[in-house]
Amino acid sequence: MLAVVLVLSITAGVSLGTVNLPFKRVWEIIFAKIFNKELVDVNLNEISIVWQIRLPRVLTGAIVGAGLAIAGTVIQSLVRNSLADPYLLGISSGACTGAVFMILFASSLFNIVLTGLEVYFAAFLGAMLAFILVFFIAGSSKGGLNPVRMILSGLAVSYIFSAITNFMVYLSQHNGAESAMFWMLGGLGGARWGRLGVPFVIVILALIIFMLNARNLNALLLGDESAAAVGVDIVKFRRFLFVASSVLTGVIVAVSGSIGFVGLIVPHAVRLIAGADHERVLPIGALAGAIFLIWADLFSRTVIAPRELPLGIITGFVGAPFFIWLLTRNKH
């Protein structure tokens, strides 16, 4: 059912916008491009809108949504905290710092003409730097990585990188600050066909790898002693999850900027419907995350068209009430 809804969501995402196109026309253009057939009585502007602008953007949204949902599911198991999300470990803040530095200062300091790829590469380097810092801080104790130290280390690193990012935006005044702020709040405006391959492969590989470890993830939710009793090497497995989820989050943030709450609300919604078994939660969550972000992006680019809202604002409006509900539902 979710696969069907995903196809319908992709169709709607490509069809709807400032210029609405019939669903049939959208698929005529897509199939013609895939099978290299000529299009008859089709406006060239419509072909450009569908194939060059909207389709890569919608597919990027699906990949990002799926990746954030997968990362959120794993991180909640990793730290055994139902209120955790992919940005808890400081990776997002590191990516923001790298990207904002490239946007605001790289052209003046290094005489670089930005094409877009440099920003993504800088964001990924910033994410990996944050990951290394959190890894060494959290793993510096004799007990190695444990949920509490990981959360605290992630928060500390996140605050450090956030302060650096805000300082850079403050120094730049109006020189590129608007572009930097839009990227910090997340968006899919930079989606291109050439930038789909890496995140798509990483998300698929991450889903497969985590699915193969679904049994150990289930055991980890029961606590360290229970997981060890069924043969899970807690230290090695937690280190593996930390590295894998950090790389996944780093790639996603490098593509889309900081889009919050998706990794929090989607895994929870899926668990309410499908239970806690990761063999179900991971694939269903990936599909649900893809669908959710496609519609969130569609809303962000149409609600005040022709202007576009950052995706982080839309997901914040949806996610914050859901977060409050999670905090209060068990108060009695």
Quick summary of this structure?
The protein is mostly helical. The protein is 74% helix and 0% strand.
Can you walk me through this structure?
The chain is mainly α and 332 residues long. The protein has a single domain (2-326), classed as ABC transporter involved in vitamin B12 uptake, BtuC. It has helices at 2-15, 23-34, 44-78, 91-110, 117-138, 147-172, 177-184, 197-212, 214-221, 224-229, 234-256, 262-274, 278-302, 311-328. The chain starts with a helix and ends with a helix. The model has no long low-confidence stretch (mean pLDDT 87).
At the first level of CATH, the class is: Mainly Alpha
SS strand fraction: under 5%
Morphology:
globular
The residue ranges in which pLDDT falls below 50 over 5 or more consecutive positions are none
The CATH topology corresponds to ABC transporter involved in vitamin B12 uptake, BtuC
What would you report as the Rg, rounded to the nearest angstrom?
20 Å
Helical fraction equals over 70%
Instruction: Specify the biggest β-sheet.
Output: none
Show the helix and strand layout:
Elements: H1 2-15, H2 23-34, H3 44-78, H4 91-110, H5 117-138, H6 147-172, H7 177-184, H8 197-212, H9 214-221, H10 224-229, H11 234-256, H12 262-274, H13 278-302, H14 311-328
Helix pairs in contact: 1-3, 1-13, 2-3, 3-8, 3-11, 3-12, 3-13, 4-5, 4-6, 4-7, 4-11, 5-6, 5-11, 8-11, 12-13
